[in-house]
Amino acid sequence: MIAGKPGKVPEPVAGSLSRPASSSRRLWLTLLAAAGFCLLLGWLTYRALFAIYLDNERHQATQRLDAFALSLEATLNRHESLPGLLALDPSLSALLRQPDNAQRLAAANAYLEAAQQGAAVAAAYLIDTTGKTLAASNWRQPRSFVGQNYGFRPYFNDALRHGLGRFYGVGVTTGESGYFLAAPIRDNGRPLGVVVLKVGLEAMEQAMAGAGDTLLLADGDGIVFLSSERQLRYRSLAPLGEAVAARLAETRQYGEQNIGLLADQALPLGQRAPVALALPGEARRERLITARPVGSLGWQVVQLGDPGEARAAALGAATAVSFAAAFLLGLAAHFRHRARRREELRRIYGELENRIAERTTDLTEKIATLERTEAILHETRDAAVQAGKLAVLGQMSAGISHELNQPLAALQTFADNASALLTRGRHGEVAENLQMISELVDRTGRIVRQLKSFARKEAPTPQAVTVASAIDHALMIVEARRRETHARIVVAPFARETRLIAEAGRLEQVLLNLLRNGLDAMNGQPEPRLEITVEQGQGGVAIAVRDHGTGLPAEALRHLFEPFYTTKPAGEGLGLGLAISLTIVESYGGTLSAHNTPDGGAIFVLTLPAGEPDAPPDA
Predict the structure, then answer these.
(1) Residues 156-184: tens digit of each pLDDT
(2) Rounded to whole angstroms, how far apart are CA atoms 527 and 158?
(3) Residues sharing a CB contact under 8 Å with residue 535, sequence separation 6 or more, in sequence order
């Protein structure tokens, strides 16, 4: 045996193994690149939109501050000339010349009180050159300014030196803040005293509270004295110097208030970017600071806006742009993939169409077969119903023959009597016999018409049928059988206009089957009694037929409505009556059931949809 060289194991082709890995790597790189592009686009959009929204917030804040500043300046300027006008009244200068004159004091108090009420200011009072208050509009009140010395107040000294004093502070006597305006009273250039007006700015503070954002009104030292939030008053925008603190203590501008910092850091009023601040009672969060000077005392109105809405709006828009970009990229990838799949789908659709065409042909043939079978079933059912009618008539033929033979024999007798009476000339008795003959003919005709109507083959067209009429016709047909069994049939009172949806002939056939079964069940009893009740409810019309026989055995209840099942002796029934009755009732959407009663006997309940009642006759 010649040993050959061992063969080499074939190596896998490198391209066949690396192709799936390369495709997967390329897919991941594409997804990462698309995600990075979407994130970058979203970040750039966020930056741009946030800057735009902040500019819009600052513009709206500037407009709001301009409106507030104009309103405040108008309020202050409206009262600025009043002290000078009050200083012209001679009653004030007269009191300053004679401060101990009671009449002049009363006149000055009355004048100042009237001026205060007419100008709708907080107070008006008169100070001499030593700073002592001689007269005031609140001279009647317990905390009157009269007798108080306000020489330390800046507005007093400014009025004496410069002609007009302006000052905002907390009242030393009342503890109520206000804006003070003072003007000197002179006599030939020599100062006699100062008249002062105190103007309340409560309306401006209420307007600030309804502005929405936090609004502050600070004095020239940066101390907030009006605010939309009362807990922010008497706080400084920046740390106070020693000189400012000493002046505040000397002038008692804000009473005993301890002036602390407004925030955890000084407010950079000139910064345009949002600043993180922690206000009293609040967590640290961003604020958009907007400030504007107001008035001639170096006041500033400041708004602390919330850039959160602008940031959220920018973030929402940037997120939407990122998702839109992702959606567009995904859409482009989808269309690309769709283009590649279109040809494959066309081929698959062609195969499916061929299969569907074949399947449609098969289904069409099966549907046609089912329709033919259904038509045969309907014809068979109608034939079975008609056969059931004829079977009932056949079983009742002896009784029906008796019902017809009785009036016919009576007709023969009355006819012979009429002939004999006519020969004897007894015409009155002849007329009576003829009347009896007419009534017997009418009775025979009704029996024949009812039998013809019952036996007639009807078109299956359900319509509103009067229950009373159907029961009367069924009782007429079953009358012969009732006489044979010596039974009594009792129909409980009910509304004669009650109607249900069925066909008259088929409804009578069902009732006839139930009546005959009830009579047969009581055959041989001494006093057989059959009861019929009619009730109408929301579910339809229920007709119950109850006998007082021995009831139905348990075995019979289980097979009661099966074709060819019967409890009667051979030759007295085929067992189709109840099966056909159930078929008829169910074709109208009704039910037919049976059960035994506790005190003996069985009860059959027929339920069918109710029909519209007869329209009442026209009045």
Answers:
(1) 999 999 889 999 989 888 888 899 999 99
(2) 130
(3) 494, 541, 542, 544
